[in-house]
Amino acid sequence: MSTDNINSRVEAIAAQYNIPKEKFEPVRREGKIHDERLQTKAIGYMGDAWIRFRKDKSAVVAFCLILVLALFAIIVPIFSSYTVTFRDPYYRNILPRIDAFKDLGFWDGGRRLNQAEAGYQYLNAIGQETGKSAIMKVYREYTDAQGQKRYDLRVDSYNQIGFVYQNLSDSEYQALQAYQNETGIQVIYPLAKTHNATAESYINGNNGANFWYKLVDEKRDTTGAALLDENGNYIPNYVTSTNPHAANYDSKRIEGDGEDGQWYTYAFPQGRTGNYYKVRVHYEEYFNYKNHFYPSFIFGTNVHGQDIFTCLAIAARFSLLLAISVATINFVIGMIYGSVAGYYGGATDMIMERISDILASVPFIVVATLFQLHLADKVGPVVSLLFAYIMTGWVGTASRVRTQFYRFKGQEYVLAARTLGASDKRLIFKHIFPNSLGTIVTGAVMTIPGVIFSESMLSYLHIINLDTHPTLTSVGTMLSQGQAQLQTFPHEILFPAIFIAILEISFNLFGNGLRDALNPSLRGAD
Questions:
Q1: Contacts from 35-40 at CB under 8 Å and sequence distance 24+?
Q2: Which of the 8 DSSP states describes residue 132?
Q3: 110: three-class secondary structure by DSSP
Q4: Domain locations in the chain?
Q5: What DSSP assignment string belongs to 299-367?
C-alpha cells in the first residue's frame, strides 16, 4: 500500500471517530521487520523439576521435616552427654524434663501421685535431709472412706530417688571425701539405722537408704509411718559413734553432727580387710560427681535407665542408614534387572519374570525370620536383616522398571533413535530410562519408610533383637520396650511413635511431590 493511500485511510478513520490525526504514528518508519531473539535462559530437565517441586508446598514441608529428623539423628549422638550404652539402675522410668520449663508446670520431670500419710512422710523426708524437695506441689489432702489421711501430690521423679547405698573402694572413698572438701557439696550422708525388711521393701529395694528417721514401730510397722516429736518434726535415726573419725571419715558433716558427744557414722568398712566401704550417698550429687553434670533427660528414660532422647537419635540414624542402604542396593539391582527384562522382552522377559515371581511369593517375614535363626549368629542381626531385605526387596523396583520400558520402548522417538543406529545401551539409558525416572525414583524413595516400618515391626515382634547389641537400638526396639510401660509411663512409647509417624507421613508426601516433579510429561506445566 502506497504512502498516499495510507494517509488517506488514516484521515478517514480520524474523521469517523473524531480522533486527531496527530495521534496516529507509524509503528516502524524504516528497517526490516523480523522476530526478536528470545532473551530467557534455557531451563534443563532438573531445573524444571525443581521449579515444579517447589510449587508443591506439602512436599517442601515434608522434605524439611525429613531434613530435621536426619539432622536430629546425626547431631544428637555427637553432642549428647549420654550414649546408648548408658544405663542407670536408679534413674529408670524417669519422666521428661527440660530445665527451662521447670517452673512452668509441664515437662518438669514431675508426675501426679496419690499417697497415704506414710508415703507423704517418706517423700517429704527426702527434701528435709537434702534440701531438694521430692514434693513439687500438694494439690489437696483429704480423708478417704476408711478414715485414712491421703495426699494428692505432684512428685519430682528425679529427687524421688533420694539416697542409695554404694560400695566404694578405699581410693574411691577418699577421692569422694576430697571432692566434698573442695566443693563444699555434701554427697556422703550418715548411715541410717537398719529397719525391718518390710520397711526396706517400701522403697523398692533401696535398702532403707531414705529411712533416716525413726518409725512408729521399728519391729512391727508395715507402713513406714514416721515417729514425730512434739513439734511434728522427724527424729533422726543415724548410726552414731563416740569416735569422730570412725571409718576413716574426715570430711564435710551435716548440721547437728557431734552434739552430746555422739558423732554420726558416714561409712561402714566391708570385706575381711576393710578394703572397701558401704557409703550412703545423695544420688543426684553422686551422679554429678561421677559424670560431671546433673541428670536431666529431655524425653525421660526407659525401663533400663537409658536416655530416650539419645536412644531415639541413634535408633533414627540406624533406621535411616539401613533404609537408605536397602533402597539404594534394591534400586540398582531392580533397575538393571527390570531394564533387561522390559527392553528385550520375549523369552528373556518370561524367564526373568518367573524368577522374580517366585521370589515375590515368599513372605518377607518368613525370610527375615529364617535369616535371623540361621545367619544372625554368624554375621550379626544387622547384616542378616540387610540380606533379608535385599533378597526380595528389588522385585518391586524391577517390576516398575519393566512396566515403564514396555510403555516407552515403542514410542516414535525410540524407533527414530534405533533407525539412526543407536546402541541398546544408549536407547536404554538415554531415551527410555529418563522418561520412567519419576515413577522409579518415587518407588525407591517410598522404599525407605517401608523398610523403617517393617524393621520396627520385626523389632516390635522380637523377630530381631537389638537389645543385646551394645551400641545399637532401633525405633521398633524402643516401641517394644515402651509397650509394657504404656499405662504407667506412656512417654517411653510416645516419642518413638511420634517420630515414626512423622517420618512415614513426610516420606509419603515427599515421594508424591518427587513423582510429579520428575514426570517429563509435565515439563513446562504450571
A1: none
A2: S
A3: strand
A4: 66-71+305-522, 99-159, 163-291
A5: T-B-TTS-BHHHHHHHHHHHHHHHHHHHHHHHHHHHHHHHHHHHHH-HHHHHHHHHHHHHHHTS-HHHH
Eight-class DSSP state of 213: B
Residue among 101, 122, 102 nearest 113 (CA): 122
pLDDT in tens, 6-34: 777 777 777 777 777 677 666 655 556 66
| pLDDT above 90 (res 176) | yes
d(CA 262, CA 256): 10
For 451-461, what is the mean pLDDT? 81
Cα separation values, 353 from 41, 152, 337, Å: 45, 68, 10
Residue (of 176, 186, 205) closest to 264 by Cα position: 186
Distances (CA, A) of 261 to 237, 240, 252, 256, 376: 16, 10, 17, 11, 66
Residue reference for cell 558401704: 278
The architecture in CATH of the region 66-71+305-522 reads: Orthogonal Bundle (1.10)
Instruction: Report CA 393 to chain centroid distance, whole Å.
Output: 26
Joined grid coordinates for residue 268: 561402714
